[in-house]
């Protein structure tokens, strides 16, 4: 498997190893669902030394595809010295744990992911306990039971892949390979400890799930929820917008020429979505679930009930995040009654 130019002539999910920049390669790895389809792992190379940004999901198919991609670079899985992980979601973190057990490579993860990782790694912890609580607060009891059942089975099979990293990352600059420095930038919102890595000399930003080219990242899906994840996310977008513009190397989607251009689109999207969400309350919705039923979802503008339970959960929680930010901004008022949060015009 020889490296190919990453020139968007192939669909970004097509297996292979792609040259992004001198010493930087992209390897898409498969995911077990039809939505995202793949996650990009980026390989930084200097001589015989390899550092990977993100790792993929601990699946046999991902393991095999990563091994084949590294072979195309004349390397093997045992040559990976370190995984720099943008955030603690399973499609970014768990294959690193599996490979560390076999080869001893190191894992580094953002410091503020520690509370969520501690909860996830407890095999006795109730799966998605925090999300169930937030769904009930949103008045979305109708999606809770089926969702909890699905995650209980997943937790049984995957809880063993959640282990602490070797290093907790904090913002700052570090030399990751001879001649290559990365800046670690804390970008909370998608998760509380999400980080992006920037290579100013090469003009590259490894944006993880913070900035994606085709979709808007989910907000605050983590075992230890943030109080106002949308406020955090919009603040992180503005932090990235204040940096010099760079090529965007996302976790899901093709490499894109401008981080700034996509950040501007995401900020505009959320401005529009905040206005839409406020209008649902003005038209009679009282809970996040009722508001979510009035909105449309995905680029296909589906109604909430057309989504599977997992994506219904993400939709309701995102709606709640928008409503709570509107309350924080003084544009709505909120009252908790019998465990359910009700929103009204102020």
From TrEMBL:
Gene3D superfamilies: Ribonuclease Z/Hydroxyacylglutathione hydrolase-like, Winged helix-like DNA-binding domain superfamily/Winged helix DNA-binding domain. SUPFAM superfamilies: Metallo-hydrolase/oxidoreductase. GO terms for molecular function: hydrolase activity. Residues 38-252 form the Metallo-beta-lactamase domain. Keywords: Hydrolase. It holds the Pfam family Lactamase_B. This is MBL fold metallo-hydrolase. It comes from Prauserella flavalba.
């Amino acid at each position: 498997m020889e490296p190919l130019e990453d020139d968007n002539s192939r669909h970004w999910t097509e297996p292979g190893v792609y040259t992004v920049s001198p010493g930087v390669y992209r390897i898409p790895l498969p995911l077990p669902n039809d939505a995202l389809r793949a996650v990009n792992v980026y390989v930084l190379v200097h001589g015989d030394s390899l550092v990977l940004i993100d790792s993929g999901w601990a699946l046999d198919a991902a393991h095999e595809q990563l091994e084949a991609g590294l072979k195309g670079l004349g390397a093997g899985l045992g040559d990976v010295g370190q995984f720099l992980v943008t955030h603690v979601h399973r499609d970014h973190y768990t294959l690193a744990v599996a490979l560390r057990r076999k080869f001893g490579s190191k894992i580094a993860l953002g410091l503020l992911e520690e509370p969520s990782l501690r909860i996830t790694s407890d095999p006795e912890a109730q799966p998605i306990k925090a999300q169930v609580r937030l769904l009930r607060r949103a008045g979305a009891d109708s999606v809770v039971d089926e969702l909890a059942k699905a995650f209980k089975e997943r937790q049984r099979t995957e809880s063993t892949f959640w282990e602490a990293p070797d290093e907790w990352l904090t913002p700052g600059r570090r030399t990751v390979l001879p001649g290559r420095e990365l800046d670690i930038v804390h970008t909370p919102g998608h998760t509380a400890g999400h980080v992006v890595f920037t290579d100013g000399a090469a003009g590259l930003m490894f944006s993880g799930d913070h900035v994606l080219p085709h979709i808007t990242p989910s907000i605050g899906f983590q075992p230890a929820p943030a109080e106002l994840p949308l406020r955090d996310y919009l603040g992180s977008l503005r932090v990235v917008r204040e940096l010099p513009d760079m090529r965007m190397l996302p976790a899901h989607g093709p490499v894109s020429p401008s981080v700034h251009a996509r950040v501007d689109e995401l900020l505009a999207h959320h401005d529009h979505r905040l206005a839409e969400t406020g209008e649902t309350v003005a038209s009679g919705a009282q809970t996040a679930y009722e508001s979510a039923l009035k909105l449309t979802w995905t680029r296909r503008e589906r109604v909430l009930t057309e989504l599977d339970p997992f994506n219904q959960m993400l939709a309701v929680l995102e709606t709640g995040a928008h409503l709570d930010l509107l309350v924080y901004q003084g544009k709505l008022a909120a009252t908790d009654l019998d465990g359910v949060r009700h929103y009204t015009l102020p």
